């Protein structure tokens, strides 16, 4: 199967890496010759030679450019490769489909299948690409009754070859869903991080894991996200309005008038409820893991020794997170394991000389 990827940044290069490992023949095209060459050098596929590249007819063309140019690139690919199925990975679907519909005829449109892998990072470009980016992530496919079954099958097979799980959705339903689970979270993370801009550095230095958990995606690309937010403006605005209502209630409750504690407690409790609905590892319901905290010297090879010792105890690591103690060469490693193995792990690691300050049961965290 030949796949031609147009746009070889984070998503395009990650896809190229994943498909190359599954014996797909991948060619790469980008308006930036450096981006194209970099993705090729990293092993994502063969460079095709820049914009308007003339590659042997591919079976599938994947457009992985920024959303604001995606419609034009999709229309151009439908014309340039008259037998290929053309798909994309853009984060917004309704407006993109409308724009493509305005640029091509009905028979060409039948060869276009909009997609959106729900997998990404807060960094851009091929240098941040990973072959396992899509593993166990949802991959939304927006086909309709006019989509030929063989073309749909080829796109689904390609998505599944990356390790993703395919979900068929109407573009409108997709856009409403991602406003809530992706686009508004990005806005909120950015707003929270923005509050730090003028804070004294001594205050910021107190930051614990809570702030880091809430703000990882605040490092995302402003250019890309401006396009995503404007491309899904109506749905994002609707979710933000609901959020504003609840935010206003919290602000009023902080006047500490009658009923205020109820509002504050309810806000946190409703958050608990929403959090519990987020799917956990490999798309299953969230699992409660036991977290064993280990203090490790910040020296080369220590983590490898720790994981070997855990492996020797016959215990599986479900997740792990590492932090650094401020001003000290000390790492704080949280190892998540199934609760039944927690005590055995603590005793086993202590007997091997590892320093274990405490044990806490908590829910599975987010990457
Ligand atoms: N970043 C994420 O987390 C994420 C996740 C899922 C989907 N997406 C979607 O994937 C797409 C790409 O995002 P990304 O994060 O990989 O961006 P990126 O900036 O890392 O890469 C985009 C690449 O497209 C190239 N490009 C721009 N215009 C082009 C054109 N006309 N023809 C050919 N190449 C062109 C750029 O040079 C760049 O190399 C976007 O539509 C985005 O909505 C992103
Ligand atoms: O994990 C991240 O860094 C992401 O932001 C990825 C994420 C998301 O989950 O919201 C962001 C935008 C995409 O369209 C799909 C995935």
From TrEMBL:
The biological pathway it contributes to is: Amino-acid biosynthesis; L-tyrosine biosynthesis; (4-hydroxyphenyl)pyruvate from prephenate (NAD(+) route): step 1/1
Q: Cite a single GO MF annotation.
A: prephenate dehydrogenase (NAD+) activity
Some GO term, biological process aspect, for this entry: which one?
tyrosine biosynthetic process
Instruction: State which residue ranges cross the membrane.
Output: none
PROSITE patterns linked to this entry: PDH_ADH (PS51176)
Question: InterPro entries of this UniProt entry?
Answer: 6-PGluconate_DH-like_C_sf (IPR008927), ACT-like_dom_sf (IPR045865), ACT_dom (IPR002912), NAD(P)-bd_dom_sf (IPR036291), PDH_C (IPR046825), PDH_N (IPR046826), Preph/Arog_dehydrog (IPR050812), Prephen_DH (IPR003099)
What is the E.C. number? Answer: 1.3.1.12
**Domain Prephenate/arogenate dehydrogenase, chain residue ranges per copy:** 1-286
So which domain of life are we looking at? Answer: Bacteria
Q: Which reaction does it catalyse?
A: prephenate + NAD(+) = 3-(4-hydroxyphenyl)pyruvate + CO2 + NADH
Keywords assigned by UniProt, alphabetized: Amino-acid biosynthesis, Aromatic amino acid biosynthesis, NAD, Oxidoreductase, Tyrosine biosynthesis
NCBIfam families in the record: PRK06545.2-3 (NF005111), PRK06545.2-4 (NF005112)
UniProt similarity note: Belongs to the prephenate/arogenate dehydrogenase family.
Official protein name in the record: Prephenate dehydrogenase
Organism placement in taxonomy:
Bacteria, Bacillati, Actinomycetota, Actinomycetes, Micrococcales
